[in-house]
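haha ok so turns out i had the wrong file open the whole time. this is the CORRECT one, sorry everyone. sequence first:
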Amino acid sequence: MVSISVFFPCYNEQENVGPTVERAIVVLEKLNADFDIIIVDDGSSDDTGKIAADIADRDDRVKVVHHPHNLGYGAALQSGFEAATKELVFYTDGDGQFDISEMPPLLELMAQYDIVSGYRLDRKDSAMRKINGWCWTKLVCLLFGLKIRDIDCAFKLYKREVFDNMELWSTGALIDTEILARAARKGYRITQIGVHHYRRTAGEQSGANLRVILRAFKELFVLQRRIRSGD
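then structure:
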């Protein structure tokens, strides 16, 4: 039996969080998995937190982590990893831009690998956003010696043990880079798989915010020094 925690970082996703969790439950029940689902409400200003709490009240396999205010994407992922209790941990964003029914094939790869990192097929973003993402991934791979096609693709599966001896520092958009860089340095086995990407049907993207991007660049070289020094 598959033992897996699935979590969704959410910020102002009131239209998306319900359908996203419902689809996850259907997929996990078909797997006959030992599972729990975690919704991380990162200080949403809409009804995301209330909707998430209502879902958890109706289904004891679902739990919610509430941030009192918006702490950032990295902080949301950290909360999800900390709340996960099963042998495997999978996360994808709560915005509905990925289909969790593409997650089961990743499970087969865990016999050989410790991390499966998705990369977006036919990415449904603007040309500028795709160019920025490509450049960011190339820069990160150059700095940390990684061979990753899509560093920030929010469709990843981990063995829970990866985080047992990993103290994460990033609370913003740099989080995926930090996890993969630290995991590679520790010798964990990483593979990649293509997953389909869909247009957002509700809510607004926050990852392209200029403040978020500038913060990520500022922290990138700090992270490089920290990892090189063994911190």
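The chain has seven helices and seven strands.
again sry for the mixup
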